[in-house]
Amino acid sequence: MQATAINVPPNDAILGLAFIGDLSMGQPTDHSPRTARLASQLAAEAGAPAGQCLDAVHVALLRWSGCTANATGFESLLGDDVGGRDAMLTHRLPAFDVETQQRIVPLAQIHCEVSGDIAAMLGMNAGVEAGLRHIFETYDGNGMPGRMKHPDLPDVVYHVALASDLEILSRAKGLEHALAYITACGDAKYPASLGKLLRKHARDWLHALDADVILPDIAAGGASVTEAQVPLTVVGDVVDLKLPWMAGHSRQVAELAKASAAMQGLDAVSQDRLYRAGLIHGIGRAALPNRLWNKRDRLLASDWERIRLMPYWTLRAARHINDLAAEAELASYAYERTDGGGYFRGASGDALSPAQRTLAVSTAWVALRSRRPWREAMSFDDASVLLRQEAARGRFDAAVVDATLSAVRGDKACVPALKPNIHLSERETDVLRRISLGDSNKEVARVLAISPSTVRTHVENIFRKLDCSTRAAATLKAFTLGML
Predict the structure, then answer these.
(1) 230 φ, ψ to 5°?
(2) How high is the pLDDT of residue 413?
(3) pLDDT of 224 strictly over 70
(4) If we measure between CA atoms, which residue out of 356, 366, 337 comes closest to residue 273?
(5) 80 near 92, Cβ under 8 Å?
(6) How confident is the model at residue 228, as a pLDDT?
(7) Which of 38, 178, 186, 394 could form a disulfide with 163 if both were Cys (CB 3.0 to 4.6 A apart)?
(8) Is 163 helix (H, G, I), strand (E, B) or coil?
(9) pLDDT tier at 201 (50, 70, 90 boundaries)?
């Protein structure tokens, strides 16, 4: 299979990432667009030029784009990466003690580095990238991760922080609570004068938001974003960062689905649509806590009910990404089965198109051949037997299974869509591959039969060569550059 480059308008990627971010933070799926509108209005009212108002829109939309990268850390810290972060944002958690605050700092670093890198990959301007890299810093210097303070912080950080606090707290606890909190944070989290300006207009702006359809024009092009299209792989890679053992999963499904479609004689339009659907089929996973996916023992019926909603949330993305609506619709069929035993629709037989059947088989194959917390990766032969057995039981289309296995047998080394000017040694590449899957230094040392100190040296070299400081950022860059 040859690596495929499918590019989309930047705004499609931005809106897709905003949707993923809202799901990951346990927020309504219009939270980031609403925050973007409020941030832009606040920036304009404060006298910011049009370009900076547009920067506020894009920083707000991408604010949570790095949150899949630290989901594992928040699962460890709060027990539920989605529900826990929602409780944190809506002030339903007690104040963190010193130890917890210290544990949050590296999570903030991961988030800021990854979201800043995403902005760079999308071609955003320096103002947007800087805003994202410092989004959790505060006016008084007590923010994270670098403890920067006014006047070194870009104004867009304040615009977005204020807008987000107003949007979340007015919805969760009422407008008066939100305004009281904003007042209390004056000259601490953000400038008191800017908070006062927001309080003056808050009621009217929120009322206008509730009465307005906010999505169609909110991410219109302009100074913040390049006119060049961007790879849709960025969205798939960000989705996969949520679970370390999912690294590269969306790309693999996309490539295999396209190759299987070609083997079946589907036209080029269908092949490309399958590829795009494969890249975004995991969007809905962001809505569910990591503990469900990491569970090693038998899932409860209540767990399955939540998991069955994963493709539903992927389908919901179609409402937010107009130009990818057909792909999101197709992607939501990734877990259907021809006998009606799949989810979330339970569609069966002729109700499933050839493309939908192809995506389902490709998704299953990649999962079988990959390591999971509850089992090791299956061998080619064992996975082939299982897939054929499932087809014999009527769960998969036998002809699609045959085409998919034929495509797999014809695999060739993928040609990276981008040729990096970065050289990693063979051993550094081995280490990078292991840490991208979530292995600790000790686990890498055991697998590669080298010392932990040697692994640490390799990791430091990898970070230096990739110009990053966290494993999540290294993983994202490595996939983007075609190094994994």
Answers:
(1) -125, 155
(2) 33
(3) no
(4) 356
(5) no
(6) 67
(7) 38
(8) helix
(9) very high
157-196 in b/e form (b: 16+ CB < 10 A) is bbbbbbbbbbbbbbbbeeeeebbebbeebbeebbbeebbe
Report which residue type is found at 30: D
Which amino acid makes up residue 340?
G
Confidence of residue 215 (pLDDT cuts 50, 70, 90): very low
262: which 2 tokens?
Answer: 């070609």
Q: Please enumerate in sequence order all residues whose Cβ is within 8 A of that of 194, keeping only pairs 6 or more positions apart, or say none.
A: 42, 46, 158, 159, 162
Task: Please give the Cα distance from 78 to 83 (Å, whole number).
Answer: 9
Looking at every residue in the chain, the average pLDDT score rounds to: 90
Determine what percent of the chain is predicted with pLDDT higher than 70.
93
CB 282 within 8 A of CB 236: yes
41 torsion bin: left (phi>0), alpha (psi -120 to 50), beta (else): alpha
Burial class (CB in 10 A: 0-12, 13-18, 19+), 112: buried
Instruction: Give the number of other CB atoms < 10 A from CB of residue 65.
Output: 30
Give the span between the Cα atoms of 1 and 21, in whole angstroms: 31
Q: Give the residue carrying structure tokens 């430091």.
A: 460
Whole-number CA gyration radius for the chain: 23
Average pLDDT over residues 6-26: 91
Asked whether the predicted pLDDT for residue 221 surpasses 80, the reply is no
Q: Which of 62, 66, 41 is nearest to 52 (CA)?
A: 41
Choose among 367, 482, 476: nearest CA to 121: 476
Nearest to 131 by CA among 221, 62, 41, 48: 62
Question: Cα(first)–Cα(last) distance of the chain, in Å?
Answer: 15
Q: Residue 189: what pLDDT?
A: 97
State both tokens at 87. 């409780």
Tell which wins on pLDDT, 129 or 482.
Answer: 129
For range 427-447, the mean pLDDT: 90
Beta-bridge partner residues of 8: 230
Q: If we measure between CA atoms, which residue out of 381, 372, 476 comes closest to residue 110?
A: 476
Peptide bond into 479 cis (omega under 30): no
pLDDT band for 7, please (50, 70, 90 cuts): confident
Tell me how far apart the 2 most distant CA atoms of the chain are, in Å: 69
Tokens representing 217 are: 């024009």
Tokens for 213?
A: 């359809």
Type and span of the H or E element at 231: strand 230-231
Of 154, 235, 133, the C-alpha closest to 470 is 133
Contact, 282 vs 177, CB < 8 A?
Answer: no
Question: How far is it, in rounded angstroms, from Cα 314 to Cα 288?
Answer: 12
- Residue among 357, 347, 355 at smallest CA distance from 273: 355
Of 53-57, 119-123, 407-411, the range with the lowest mean pLDDT is 407-411
Contact in structure between 34 and 19 (CB atoms under 8 Å): no
